[in-house]
Design goal:
With 360 residues, this protein is α+β, with helices and mostly antiparallel strands. The chain is built from three helices and 17 strands. InterPro entries: Cyt-c552/DMSO_Rdtase_haem-bd.
Length: 360
């Protein structure tokens, strides 16, 4: 009974966002220019998922201005600075780092008074960035059949109950219940067809499926914190006042998941994925609301999941070296045979023809 209640509470949070989400004014327009791409490099054994950015220093980064998602005008850009996005993979998991400047804001238990971030990925071929998948159905008619092809995969992290440097997301308790919730830190795994039709993985309008789980893990940090020592809940609010600094959000997820419901994006080494990044912040001390987020672009950003180019280079060099070695050996054998033959011809005794005496 208690588990069912917790699931309903988690679902309620997702459903509450429908009330005030994406109330646009005027016709949507997007001028994103040329296609924007990110490269997820193959860097095994590099990243520790702890919210710290030290191990990302040598990774290529891309900077994006943060514009309001529903009204992407330059004059409404997030004032504190651009967002830096980095990504790598190790052949099993893919990792993302988001960093953005901002005064430290934290109110325990009040997600809307703390910064929040989300990653969104295209799943269905017809899923658009705008309108979170773009299915035209209403909340009472959107299903996996009526909105087929418009699925998007969303990871949303609200830090109001998350301790800095601690790991949140998928955990045995929520995954045992077969959904994408996170009752401890609200790093949830969600799918959607449009802003009004979004659910925790495994929970849907026509019934639930216990095979789902939260595949994401993540942590956060702020540069104003002293040292790298571990915090506990009693240390909240973890910093004094509202010092300026940089927020770090670090996430990981397996490249491939066991999803069979078309709710997770699947990454392929050597392939591409479509991604969007959202950022919420209590500007001027005012709580943010669901549709009041910033975005790094007004359309999908392409992510290239790179193969191990260095290994390919080493393999190419190795193959070239092996071919050269074989050729050199063959040449040596031929040279040796030629030397033996020439030596034999030179050292071979020259016979004198026998002439009988009677012929002299």
């Amino acid at each position: 009974m208690l588990r069912a209640l917790l699931v309903l509470l988690a679902l309620g949070f997702v459903l509450i966002g429908r009330v005030n989400s994406h109330q646009e004014s005027g016709e949507w327009s997007c001028e994103s220019g040329s296609e924007i791409r990110l490269e997820s490099e193959f860097r095994p054994g590099l990243v520790t998922l702890d919210g710290h950015a030290d191990d990302w220093e040598d990774i290529f980064s891309s900077e994006f201005p943060l514009l309001p998602a529903l009204d992407p005008d330059d004059d409404k850009e997030y004032k504190a600075g651009k967002m830096t996005v980095k990504t790598v993979h190790d052949g099993r998991d893919v990792f993302f780092l988001l960093q953005v400047d901002g005064e430290y804001k934290y109110s325990k238990g009040e997600n809307n008074n703390c910064p929040s971030v989300a990653l969104m990925f295209q799943v269905g071929e017809d899923a658009t960035y705008h309108d979170m998948g773009g299915c035209k159905e209403e909340p009472d008619s959107c299903t996996n059949k009526t909105c087929k092809g418009h699925e998007v995969d969303i990871m949303h992290f609200s830090i109001g109950n998350a301790i800095p440097g601690r790991l949140y997301g998928g955990n045995p308790i929520d995954n045992r219940d077969g959904n994408g919730g996170d009752r401890f830190g609200h790093l949830v795994d969600v799918y959607a067809w449009n802003p009004h039709c979004r659910h925790l993985d495994g929970i849907g309008p026509t019934g639930n499926d216990s095979s789902a789980q939260n595949d994401w893990k993540g942590a956060w940090w702020h540069s104003s914190f002293d040292g790298h020592s571990g915090f506990v809940e009693q240390d909240s609010p973890y910093a004094s006042g509202n010092p300026k600094g940089t927020y770090y959000f670090e996430f990981s997820r397996p490249l491939r998941t066991t999803d069979r419901l078309q709710q997770d994006t699947q990454f392929t080494i050597g392939g591409t994925s479509k991604m969007a990044v959202a950022f919420w912040y209590p500007v001027d001390g005012k709580p943010w609301h669901g549709s009041g987020h910033y975005s790094i672009n007004c359309d999908w950003v392409t992510v290239d999941i790179s193969s191990d180019s260095s290994m390919l280079s080493r393999s190419s060099v190795s193959n070239s070296g092996s071919t050269a070695s074989v050729f050199a050996l063959l040449l040596s054998v031929v040279s040796l045979c030629a030397s033996v033959f020439v030596g034999y011809r030179v050292l071979k005794p020259k016979g004198v023809p026998f002439t009988p005496m009677e012929n002299l």
